[in-house]
Amino acid sequence: MIEFKDVKKVYPNGTEALGGIDLKIEDGEFVFIVGVSGAGKSTLTKLLTREEKITSGSLTVNGFDLSRMPERKVPYYRRRIGVVFQDFRLLPDMTVYENVAFAMQIVGEPKRVIKRRVPSILSIVGLQDKASCFPDQLAGGEQQRVALARALANNPATIIADEPTGNIDPRLSLEIMNLLIKIHRKNKTVIVVTHEKQLVDYFQQRVVTIDGGNIVSDRVGGMFGETV
Ligand SMILES: Nc1ncnc2c1ncn2[C@@H]1O[C@H](COP(=O)(O)OP(=O)(O)O)[C@@H](O)[C@H]1O
Ligand SMILES: [Mg+2]
Predict the structure, then answer these.
(1) Is pLDDT of 228 > 50?
(2) Which of 26, 56, 80, 144 is deepest in the core (most CB within 10 A)?
(3) Is the pLDDT of residue 37 over 90?
């Protein structure tokens, strides 16, 4: 479970990015986070990945109390969540296979486990035939699928994606979003920041809207509420 209790985030320059967030996300939920530019969406995801620390309140993620977590425990925590970025952040000198395998190597998985698991993860995202390609040989949508595969490599309970379709041809955004839904169906908590209204409306999932650092609505349906 993920629980924000009265979470405030004030950046060192005095900007209050989040003004008191109360939000509970149960295990296995799918949640869209929406809101205009500057609303505080990325700040919220950065608190979850512990790229940023909360200023006050409390934040618990799958039993980890992020308000009290010492810096030395952060790498250990990060291995237990999967993160997908707008700009993919793949390693350009490694193949698709190696990008996914690398995520497993750094947590010390044995070679035989890696050999078995990488192909099965690549098939989840439909890239089994691209294993030996380098990122620059792939289309944007495919690169993002590699990033998704990498996020899944260590079987995290939670996937956090900040505008995962922001750098992708709109025609392929649906494909990425479908994959995130498929991952959610494998019993994972999936949190997706997006401003693609059509996709939010299409999937009819929980939608949390942030404005000016506060949650202004939390409901199931399209961006503006229930449409079914
Ligand atoms: N590192 C930072 N230092 C100071 N202000 C920041 C920083 N990051 C974001 N902000 C500010 O915090 C607010 C929320 O930003 P952000 O979370 O990136 O919004 P969103 O992702 O919804 O566009 C904005 O006013 C932004 O300018
Ligand atoms: Mg953002």
Answers:
(1) no
(2) 144
(3) yes
Distance 78 CA to ligand 2 centre (A): 20
Per-residue pLDDT of 113-155, as tens digits, reads: 999 999 999 999 999 999 999 999 999 999 999 999 999 999 9
Is the distance from the beta carbon of residue 35 to the nearest atom of ligand 1 less than 6 Å?
A: yes
State in Å: Cα 129 to ligand 1 middle: 39
| Minimum-distance ligand 1 atom for the alpha carbon of 15 | 5
Per-residue CA distances from 213 to 38, 74, 75, 116, 205 (Å):
8, 25, 27, 44, 22
Residue 76 near ligand 1, beta carbon < 6 Å: no
Ligand 1 pocket, 225 CB below 6 A? no
